[in-house]
Amino acid sequence: MHPFRFDPVSLPPQAEVLREEVRAFLAEELASGRITPHRNAWGSFDPEFSRKCGARGYIGMRWPSQYGGHECSALERYVVTEEMLAAGAPVGAHWVADRQSGNNILAHGSEAAKQAILPEIAAGKCFFAIGMSEPNSGSDLAAASTRATRTEGGWLLNGTKVWTSGAHRVHYLIALARTAPRSEDRHAGLTQFIVRMGEDRVLTRPIYNLYGGHDFNEVIFEDTFVPDDMVIGDVGAGWQMVTGELAFERSGPDRFLSTFQLMRQLIDALGASADVRAQVAIGRLVAQLATLRTMSLSVAGMLERGESPNLEAALVKDVGTAFEQEIPEIARLLVAAEPSLNQGEPFHEALAKAILTSPSFTIRGGTREILRGMIAKGLGLR
User: Fold this and answer.
1) Rounded to an integer, what distance in angstroms lies between the CA atom of residue 142 and that of residue 158?
2) Above 90 in pLDDT, residue 110?
3) How far apart are CA 353 and CA 75, in angstroms?
4) Are 195 and 172 in contact (CB under 8 A)?
5) CA–CA separation, 140 and 221 (whole Å)
6) Contact indicator for 311, 250 with CB cutoff of 8 Å
7) pLDDT on residue 25
8) Which part of the chain is CATH 1.20.140.10?
9) Could you give phi then psi for residue 266, rounded to 5 degrees?
10) Closest CA to 101 of 250, 248, 303
């Protein structure tokens, strides 16, 4: 049985100094009109803003300087992440590369991959997508059927990935593929590959959402060549890396701050005239937010110590995304408004965006059912 622990973490003084620096940078971006908070989230794709973040040292913060990093702590990186999300900064272009793909390459990639890719990520010039989900397999990553077969100097990939966010505008995709036949151990025989996008044998098809937006994609590999130095880790050891990678994906502030801008707009819309019902609702949301922040910060502390808090991260993600989904529902009850994406009114636009995107929160990064199964197993309940 795995006992859950969320030990309190105190931020070091240099993290608080960094927080003020980041706030000043974001305030300048807001004042100039380059950021419109209620229209942005960590899914917003703005390469120019990413390059600014890279120039300021806000990407690849924990990586060694030899790879373009800045050798900061996980807690310093946490502060930057939190401030970016709280301000509604358009960090989506570099988000996946900075949060997980770069860390994966740093820990398990070849020296050639590290030298070629990590400095570009840290500079805010190289963007990644994650190729895990596949048709007909739901959230069961172990059911992956994309195949990788040996060829001279590398591998040939064949198969299809779906719900691949940003695949149409990134430079690389990390794909999970089967390099050995299925066996009794469902997690064996899987390997991760760094695939350069835009190649002739990589086909990307858009999956449009209900309001016509293009975030998701279907990615098809047809004898796509991947050189040996773009294999991540040992062949057949992909599952262990995927599960470790998900701790970075599931535990951060992005798993409870996706609708934070709507919460801010809701408080502004209610103003000083908020009745007791509204005050109780807002107080409960603020209390939940404070608790989630404490839990998430604790996981950042574990990552700083080199631990693998996979189950704690799963719990943060499950509770956090439920919180994110609750905010638009409460907002609709407290304020009479017609949600609209093009009305120009911050609360209406933030509410519209949240209503349209919030159903995905408990799917992306692992469905609620998968996470609760992991949590139950960790507690010895199954």
Assistant:
1) 17
2) yes
3) 30
4) yes
5) 20
6) no
7) 98
8) 252-378
9) -65, -45
10) 248
The CATH number given to 130-237 is 2.40.110.10
Tokens, residue 6: 């969320």
| Dihedral sign from CA coordinates of 83, 289, 14, 252 | negative
From residue 276, give the alpha-carbon distance in Å to each of 147, 268, 334, 366: 58, 16, 11, 37
Is the pLDDT at 1 greater than 60? The verdict is: no
Chain segment 11-37, per-residue pLDDT in tens: 999 999 999 999 999 999 999 998 888
Q: Which residues contact 234 (CB under 8 A, 6 or more apart)?
A: none
Q: Tell me which residue has tokens 């093009």.
A: 342
298 near 312, Cβ under 8 Å? yes
CATH H-level superfamily of 252-378:
Butyryl-CoA Dehydrogenase, subunit A, domain 3 (1.20.140.10)
Listed in order, the ranges of the chain carrying CATH 2.40.110.10 are: 130-237
CA distance 302 to 300: 5
Task: Determine the CATH number of domain 13-126.
Answer: 1.10.540.10
Q: List phi, psi (to 5°) of 275.
A: -80, 180
What CA–CA distance (Å, rounded) separates 374 from 382? Answer: 9
320 — phi, psi (to 5°)? -65, -45
Side-chain half-sphere exposure of 48, counting CA atoms within 13 A: 3
What residue has token string 């911050």?
346
Plot region of 198 (φ>0 → left; ψ -120 to 50 → alpha; else → beta):
left
Q: End-to-end distance of the chain based on CA atoms, in angstroms?
A: 10
Expressed in percent and rounded to 5, the helix, strand and coil fractions of the chain are 50, 15, 35
Q: How distant, in Å, are the alpha carbons of 180, 334, 357 from that of 53?
A: 41, 37, 26
Tell me the pTM.
0.90
